[in-house]
Every structure is written in structure tokens, then in C-alpha cells.
Amino acid sequence: MKGPGVLWMLETAVGLSMAGPMFVVGVDFLRTGQPVAGVGFLLLGAVALFLPSYLVRRIGGPRAWIQRRLGREETRRSSALDRFRDR
After folding, report:
1. Could you tell me which of 38, 39, 35, 42 has the C-alpha nearest to residue 19?
2. Extended strands (E) in the chain
3. Cβ(41)–Cβ(29) under 8 Å?
4. What is the pLDDT of residue 45?
5. Number of domains in the chain
6. pTM of the predicted protein model
């Protein structure tokens, strides 16, 4: 079985480092009787936890970044557009 990759571990570490304090503050607000602020911080923490993974999937991984930097994706897009236009 293949284990998690280095990029996945970095995404998780970044997400937890951003979301961890928000979860602690949210639980503290809930404990002291401020439910609106507590739920708000818990939701904000959930967004911060998954935001790095979402961005990497949306933008692409390191291989896609390198291909974009070298301009190889542009040739693929232009050839796909040319095939679409020829129809």
C-alpha cells in the first residue's frame, strides 16, 4: 500500500497550523457561553483546515506548476482549441 505523499503531509501540516488555534478559540468561546462566536471560529477553522488542499487541487500540483512555468501547457491548450475550431 502506498503511503501519503510529501505534498499531502505538507498540506495537512499547513492546514492544522492555521486551523488549530481557531479550533481552540472556538471551543473556549463555546465553553464560556458565547455560542455564536464559538461556532464561527469552528467554521473558520474548518475552512482553514481544508483550504491548502483545495488550492493545490484547484491550481494543480508541482508538476503542473513547472509545466506552466516552462510554457508546455500553452501548447496543449492551443492545440485543443485548434481541434475544436476545426469542427
Report:
1. 42
2. none
3. yes
4. 92
5. 1
6. 0.60
